[in-house]
Amino acid sequence: MAWALSIALLSPATVLADNAAPAGEDKVALPEVVVKGAAVNEPTTEKSGAYSTRKSASATGLDMSLRETPQSVSVVTRAKMDDFRQLSANDVLANTTGVSVEKVETDRTYYMARGFDIINFQYDGIGLPFTSGLLYGDIDTAIYDRVDIVRGANGLMSSTGNPSATVNFIRKRPVYQFQASSGLTLGSWNTRRLDADVSGALNEAGTVAGRLVVAKQAGDSYLDRYSPGKTVVYGVIEANLGDATLLTVGHSHQKDDVTGGMWGALPLYYTDGSPTNYKTSASTAADWSNAQTRNERSFIELSHQLNEDWQMKSTVSRNRSAWDSKLFYVYGTPDRTTGLGLYSYPSLYNSVNTQTMFDLSASGKFTLAGRKHDLSVGANWSKSNMNDISHYGVGIGTALPDISNWTGNYPEPAFNASIDGSDYEDKRTTIFIASRFNLADEFKLIAGANRTKAETKGNSYGVSSAKNASKTTPYLGLVYDLTPYVSTYASHTEIFNPQSEIDASGKTLDPVKGKGDELGVKAELFERKLNLSAAVFKIRQENAAEQAGYIGAKAYYRGIDATSQGFEFDASGELAKGWNLSAGYTQLSLKGSDDKDVKTYVPRKLFRLSTTYQLPFLPQAKVGGSLNWQSDIFRDEGSGNIIRQGSYAVLNLMARYDVNPKLSIALNLNNVSDQKYLTSLYWSQAYYAAPRNGSVTVNWKY
Prior knowledge:
Membrane topology: Multi-pass membrane protein
Oligomer: single chain
Mean pLDDT: 91
Subcellular location: Cell outer membrane
Keywords: Cell outer membrane, Membrane, Receptor, Signal, TonB box, Transmembrane, Transmembrane beta strand, Transport
InterPro entries: Beta-barrel_TonB, Beta-barrel_TonB_sf, Plug_dom, Plug_dom_sf, TonB-dep_rcpt-like, TonB_sidphr_rcpt
Pfam family, one: Plug
């Protein structure tokens, strides 16, 4: 489809549609096409240059402004991603209010918000929780218009998960007037990247449009032996089947090729309890370590405008993710004097996860008691199959030299010592309803519910994955307009997540329950170009599985509770002409059922700031910076061994100059002060973040 689209965009019909008629000839006026069906799609942010958006349906499925949404929502626009070269989901989320990115390895990542794991990533509002609770590989941002982050429980749109956040990636869509752009980036450690994006009408009538986005990146890294690369291709076609019906078909492909990636990371303390302090470039990867990740995402959407007030939309999605790797894990605790005490654990790992999803929804307005109200109803069904296998290498437990100056020289073993793996299937069926009642000019009540049945069957590494649960989760919000631009709100949301762990009696634990209560105020200032919000929240997760002991060789679990409460500020948009801002501050406490601190690796305070300014005396130039700060964290390993990471701030700078309306040059400098810090304490191992680095990008657009 990508090849067909690229050819079609260069077809004579497209050229004729965009070129002016030669002198002396009459210009051909194309018929006007009114695309009513597109109204159900999310508003775009590209070309706006804005750091915010007016509306988002990511929290409720209802078409509402951020001020009218009774929940904390942050939006990362195309402009912000471009300004700060946020090329991956990690880059985006590491600069988002209230979110911490836990990079436990080079190619596997956890995400946290309000003290709990984020496991719900969606694409245009549709998705399933992570199969393993974390992300394998990378998500490139080249194909997305914006990213919405809804913090707290999100039972209406996610059905199952944690009361942390839902991340919704909004794809780029075709435009009907021809446009094209490309970019070439050269960066530290021999990093090279090429981007291209072309879109336009595919027929003379202007009723069919297509878009093709490609990106290719390669290079080395600050880490010894680590060289990441990726290829991204996205094609989408949009066809107006009539005045009220819109068909969209799209497919994205991303392949990550990595050599020298780490499985696990560096040991963090010596046998005497003192902390290790390796070089920033230190790696435990063997010189033969490698991994390939492939993600294929296909979707078909059909939207239809029933009348002036009502529209329907159906979506079928098919995702396939595969991971093939040869990995080298290092375990043990080194001696401070000799560096010895570490051992090898090689493995060959393959996995395939396929997901099929179907979603049908209708939204519109109805009249009750003389007032118009909004309603959204829908149903969705999904099935996910996970198959993976581990081939363990010969030589597990071989003693290793001091890794301080290790070159990764370890003979590649035969991977036939033993095998193990998983084979299980998840099914979910959901129906939901949400409505916004206009109780009065100033009062809006948002009420809804989600009924979900979740079932899993199969086994994972010799343990049954079987679980079966059904639950109705409510959503309730109240918004009061103090002025046409300032609102206060209160909301209660819930979510649940089935689990397969068993207790001491052999009974499967009940599902995890998550509840969130939030009270806040939101404002739209400066002609609605700046969105402000402040909120206090209390999140409770009940019955999460925690290992409690063993009966023979079989582990059993107990359900524990945890409560997160705190406050949050968020700002995004335009402060003045040419001055954009995105900022947020989060502070929370996280306690267990015994009122003691839990998850001490989660920072209790986070500050995010990104700002750019177009110079009034040189309007072709834009300068900016971002600052990310987090408070100190620690991890108690027992026996008096406590791992600590002090608070730190990371400063990034950018500058761009428009040579002419079509050509621009951008400079980005990251970690300006060359801070040395650990990427995470989520696990008992970690590695160091990238030191000072930079890039230069040349962009061309038509």
